[in-house]
Amino acid sequence: MPDMNSRKTLLLAAALALCSLAAAATTPAEQLSGFRAAAGGVPSAERGRGFFTATHGREWSCASCHGTAPVSTGRHAGTGRDIAPLAPAANGARFADAAKTEKWFRRNCNDVLGRECTAGEKADVLAWLLTLKP
Questions:
Q1: Is the pLDDT of residue 100 over 90?
Q2: Domain ranges, ordered by start, for the chain
Q3: CA geometry: angle at 48 spanning 32 and 101, to 5°?
Q4: CATH dotted code for 26-129
Q5: Element (H, E) at 66
Q6: Residue 86 near residue 73 (C-beta atoms within 8 A)
Q7: Which residue has the higher pLDDT, 4 or 116?
Q8: Cα separation of the two ends of the chain
């Protein structure tokens, strides 16, 4: 039978795991709030639209795969695979998991920018996406 310290350690580990899972499931508005706080500024939907549709020294823009108004299915420019709508109003699964959001921002920003997006860029893009309706 485990001693008291081992039980406390196991309980603490379980509690931290549950907190991590709870922190990963968020709303788009909560994620926008986090990006805004990290950026230290007010997000701009208009800047987000411009960022999304522009190229940034590389071949693709965000719109290359997601479409200029990402409320319908997009198509990956390289593989041709379908991409579910990006706008949260058209796809409730978008921006509902902070870990997935970070994973895809990291991958896609690298493809589009050749670097990770800043918190301000993420805030602007998400602010714009939240204005879109299906």
A1: yes
A2: 26-129
A3: 45
A4: 1.10.760.10
A5: helix 63-66
A6: no
A7: 116
A8: 57
Q: Which residues contact 74 (CB under 8 A, 6 or more apart)?
A: 65, 66, 67, 82, 83, 84, 85, 86
User: What is the distance between the alpha carbons of residues 127 and 53, in angstroms, rounded to a whole number?
Assistant: 14
Please give the single-letter amino acid code of residue 8. Answer: K
Are 123 and 32 in contact by the 8 Å Cβ rule? The answer is yes
Residue 69's pLDDT band, with cuts at 50, 70 and 90, is confident
Gyration radius of the chain over CA positions: 18
Cα torsion through 123, 73, 105, 96, rounded to 10: 70
Please write the tens of the pLDDT for every residue from 9-67. Answer: 655 554 444 344 345 569 999 999 999 999 999 999 999 999 999 999 899 999 999 99
CA distances from residue 131 to 2, 9, 28, 49 in whole angstroms, order as listed: 54, 45, 12, 10
- The length of the chain in residues reads 134
The backbone torsions φ and ψ at residue 97, rounded to the nearest 5 degrees and listed phi first, read: -140, 110
Reported as half-sphere exposure (CB side, CA atoms, 13 A), residue 89 has a value of 12
Query: Which residue bears the tokens 């902070």?
Result: 98
Stated pTM of the model: 0.81
